[in-house]
Amino acid sequence: MRRVAFIRLLTLPFTLSSGLVLGLSAPAFAQLAATQPRTEYLTDPLAIHDPHPRLSWVLETASSSTRDLAQSAYRILVASSPQLLAANTGDLWDSGVVASNATFGVIYKGKPLTSRQSCHWKVQIVDAAGTEGPWSTPATWSMGPTAPSDWSAQWIDAAPTRSSIIITTATYATEDKSVSKDVTAIISAAVAKGETSIPASNNFLGGDPAYGKKKALSFTYSLNGQTFTRIIAENTSFKLPAGPLPVLRKTFNINKPISRAVLYSTALGVYDISINGKPTSDARLNPGWTDFRKRVRYQTADVTGLLAQGDCTLESTVAPGWFSGRAGLFNISQFYGKEPALLAQLEISYADGTSERIISDASWKRCDGPTLSADLMDGEVHDARITLPPTSDPAWQPVTTRPESRNLEPDVCLPVRTFAELPAISLTQPAPGRYTYDLGQNLVGVIRLRVTQPKGTVITIKHGEMLNPDGTLYTANLRGAACIDTYTCSGTPNETWEPRFTFHGFRYVELTGLSSAPDQSSVTGIAFGSDFERVGSFTFANKDLNQLASNIWWGLRGNYLSIPTDCPQRDERMGWMADAQVFAQTAIFNADLAPFFTKWLADVRDAQREDGAHSDVAPVTRGLTYGTPAWADAGSIIPWLMYENYGDTRILEQSLDSMTRWVEWCRRHSTNLYRDRDRGNDYGDWLSIKADTPKDLIGTAYFAHSTDILARSLRVLGDSARAEQYESLHRDIIAAFNKAYVNLEKSADGTSHIRIKGDTQCSYILALRFNLLADELRPLAAARLVETIQRANNHLSTGFVGVSYLLPVLDSINQRPLAAKLLLNDTFPSWLFSVRHGATTIWERWDGYTPQTGPHPDISMNSFNHYSLGSCGQWFVEGIGGITQRGQPSAFQRVNINLDPLPNLDVADISYKSIRGTYRTTWKPTAVGHSARLTIPINCSALVKFTRSAASITESGKPLSAALSAKIRNQDPLTLELGSGIYDFTIAPQ
Fold first, then answer.
1. DSSP helix/strand/coil, 783
2. φ and ψ at 437, to 5 degrees?
């Protein structure tokens, strides 16, 4: 095995590319290998546009017992073919041996790349002793069609076939049916005029039949020979289906051997696409949600294996989706455009060196398919009796092309995929003909239906998160979202169906309309979300805490669906900015979200106004405001978290103008640097418990925080002059904050006390977390924060804004036991209150359900899958695992680890796979105290702190002074500086 002689010099301390310094000692021999090679965070992406993509890898070694391992250099080869790469010929780029310990963000600096070019690469590592490791497994990336001229495909119209809807009956009545009003004529007249949205409002329905009483609109309509009934709560609305979705088809012939075939496709809407009857991908709801007016993501699939010589068929169905279906609040549809459309370009390379394109154009045909309607919120209607005729049948009509000027970009976000299938755990019949299934888990997705019923049987499938006391579905919290799928049976035995163009948030499913009773296996839950890697694992002896960790994961897994939605069930499902930012660090500790947030931050920038104000949501929809504190600040906070966690300076570069415009907007819309006006919807510490934090205080605190982030970002990017300007502004905002909101008092005995305006937990949390107080005031604010918690009977009172920082702030002020107590509380308000009452995801409200009152009476806002309050999961890693970054952010290259067992949390296994590798702390009691196993990834170092003395600690069975004497950096508190490896400590009790 060859050694690189000059690299030995790098066993001395050396400067990293990020400007940090790592001291390396020469370890015992252990071969390092680069694994998991990725390009722009993705494994073998088939289409990127960046001509200088970033490459990354993770270091591993076969010897788990070796410590202090580090990379001192790397060499990358990029070739134009697998054969050249196998021969170690980097005809596109040979980096040479680069003295660096960088394992991510390594920028390709080779030959210019052209559209559709395939690049094959591998990397070799040199360790700290100068020993070369093996070459990594080969990886690839391909350039997509990077210029508009690379597309010859045309957009083809995929508008549903307009069908006549007949209103049979319509009644506007009170809940108890004591007062009712026939409104059939009113609705029929509206439909005849072309109205597609039916509101259950007094104005629309000709007056209020029962003032002061809750009412609902119930109406029955027929469409394509089928009858449907919908019940619409007062002040919500229902969008009538447009008609059958067309199937778009192109037939073509292949008459010679193929070497490769790649399909580039996308839609205005959501679509699936197949070749010869086989899906080109297992993704769902492509192309996802963007502001289609500003960018449309296209998907790329290698379809070589789906093609064969002879007649072939390319086929697609497009549903309205986010483009022209309902998206967001207020029954908004067609916000981004009127009708769906498809774009497809199949590029075939033949073995003889020739090529061919099959494109979407006027040669395609369309025919009404079995999907009669589809809407993301209202559900999908499918008639299995409908089968497609041969392409020669007159039912296949020519398509219409239409001019579209769209900004096409490759899909850099991981697609939505199925990640779990859940069999029903019970089946009940709360009323004749109504069959209720419990899937045991609140999920985001659809069901797979398997039944044997007579032909023409119409099965109605309803979804809900909870049950009413009588065992029927609780659907009041769905507001204006119908969440109903309808399936008409073909009559074949054991026929199965999964909706393709909708999703729901639910645990319970109700089937009606069956001619005979189904069995428990008739319904399977199909859970899906964006397909990211799970990187966090949290296991405790406390079963309630395990359930809380599971609830956080399931809330993240389903709600991160193309964008970070707030909830998956009601007529909302938007990318609320504050929800995303308060939960972002918890999310990152659970999942590899670098590609997901890269995509969504483009949506955030797209949603920002030219004047700098950020929207409440991204992608933007109609009817919401701009400039709301804590919501708009996500545009600064999440790019910085991307840098902190993934070392991503490119996202800072991309977001810098956006962050600057936001800070300047805040400056212009403040009075003497107080955010006292123009605060949008001004939600404040949303859903706090009898603790109203002043909203101008929250606005000013976040103004300071975003300014601080901007200044830090400018420092990272090397713009010292501008950084100094915003550092000065930051100091001025802090001074304004203290002048307006901080009051220093003295008691009769001369003791100093502090009061921050509002005197709420959130007030002190923000002041401490954002470093808005002078050093001498921090202990006073810390003491008052503890008093506010004690005043609440040792419970929290924070809402969305304060809760995310509560436990980390308590940890930072040496109140870890109090943080642990709050985490383990199971009475209202607390995280475990919902767990004790059967929650399987995080609730929107602390009291979304109580045994005394049932579901919260405010049905307009009572989601049972709403991840924001689950932001406590950040403390699983930082508090229980004890792992925090040290000094300047280093993407977890340099960390602090607190090995101090917590009361009632001393049995735990916390693991986090950072971009550099896996950190893990495992706690358990022993006969002589506690054992703590610590894992530090290769190329990383940790300052490990104990509250015990060295005499009370052993490592791998040896006294600490003998085992790790050279690693001791301090005795009080005892601090070790450790490199990579596994360490087994036994800690005697105090």
1. helix
2. -110, 140
Q: What residues have CB less than 8 Å from 681, skipping those under 6 apart?
A: 616, 624, 625, 628, 631
For the segment 439-468, what is each residue's pLDDT rounded down to a tens digit?
999 999 999 999 999 999 999 999 999 999
Catalytic pick among 60, 347, 844, 955: 844
Euclidean distance between CA atoms 711 and 724, whole angstroms: 7
Residue type, 924: K
Q: Tokens 């496709």 belong to which residue?
A: 265
Q: How far apart are CA 325 and CA 151, in angstroms?
A: 27
Architecture of domain 536-879: Alpha/alpha barrel (1.50)
- CA 379 to CA 501: how far, in whole Å? 8
Which is the catalytic residue, given 234, 572, 727, 878?
Answer: 572
d(CA 921, CA 937): 12
Distance from the Cα of residue 699 to its chain's centroid: 25
- 844 as an active site residue: the answer is yes
Task: Classify domain 5-144 at the CATH topology level.
Answer: Immunoglobulin-like (2.60.40)
If 0-12 CB within 10 Å is exposed, 13-18 middle and 19+ buried, where does residue 375 land? buried
User: Does 787 participate in catalysis according to the annotation?
Assistant: no
Q: Tens of pLDDT along 920-951?
A: 999 999 988 899 999 999 999 999 999 999 99
Spatial contact of 237 and 228, defined as CB atoms under 8 Å apart: no
Contacts for 277 with CB less than 8 Å, ≥ 6 apart: 313, 315
Burial of 309 (C-beta count, 10 Å sphere; 0-12/13-18/19+): exposed
Give the homologous superfamily in CATH for domain 417-529: Galactose-binding domain-like (2.60.120.260)
CATH architecture under which domain 151-159+242-413 falls: Sandwich (2.60)
Look at the pTM and tell me if it is higher than 0.90. Answer: yes
